[in-house]
Amino acid sequence: MAAHKTFLLVALCILVELLVTANGAHEQRTSAELSLVQLQEQLDRYQEAIDAFNRTTAAANNLALLAHNVLHHAQQILPQPLTHLSEYSDIFDAVLHGDDAAVNQLLEGDPTLIDKRDFYGRTPFLDAAEKGHVGVMKAIHESKSDVLQQTTDDKKNALHLAAYDGHVAAVDQLLEWNPKLIDAADKYDNTPLMGAAFGGHVEVMEVLYAKGGEELLKQTNNDNWTALHWAVWGAARHGNSAAVSQLLKWYPELLDIEDNDGKTPWDLAERYNEAEIGGIMANINKCQEIQFVG
């Protein structure tokens, strides 16, 4: 850098002398000399700026090295990489994506998250059951087994939610942990079977029936609706009559059970103008009559 400065100054001096000699003008010489002084001052300022930049760069490099060492030390201490935590800062996001490893890690960092409630009053465990994420359910259950007692604001437990949305594997797992969940009633006395019947989830109904038997079919809510009432209403809304057929195969007597308004499943089918459901019921009733006469 110094050699370049010296060479530039010498070259400029020669240029100035040539200009003075060629023109013989004293004023030009004076002006050129002034320009040379100004140039020297400018070069000095550039040099100061370069020195300052070099000092700043050295400090930045030292700071970066320190940060790298701190991060490396932290990664040696922590059981999991920090990068995984940054993906889900909220436990409900981790549940939504079925990431049981992230859920585990978040609970290790803050065990109180296990009782956190979302906008709908669901805990992470209830949310996992509703979405059918069995891996997440297991991770949370291992952390705190009494999550099976958690309910929503309207008293639905995890089995209600899993059955309503047709998650067979989640239903199986919940019953393995606690078979008594099958008889749990929500705020309106609805059972998990009623939720499955409304959704038309026959596979879930079969799992529940295998555990609870005929007594499960006779259960009613506070409107005296059976699972068949719910299945008829669900079929009217969703267009799936398979649940109606299955319930009647198991227990045809459900046809004659009246609700608090004196309405049987027959009446509901007529109200919703469900000819297909009415036909299914008529066939079942005809079979009953033939069986009775025989």
Automatic annotation (TrEMBL):
Transmembrane segments: none annotated. The keyword Electron transport does not apply. It comes from the Eukaryota. Residues 29-56 form a coiled coil. The keyword Transcription regulation does not apply. InterPro entries: Ank_Repeat/CDKN_Inhibitor, Ankyrin_rpt, Ankyrin_rpt-contain_sf. Residues 1-24 form the signal peptide. Keywords: ANK repeat, Coiled coil, Repeat, Signal. SMART domains: ANK (SM00248). It holds the Pfam family Ank_2. This is Uncharacterized protein. It comes from Vitrella brassicaformis (strain CCMP3155).
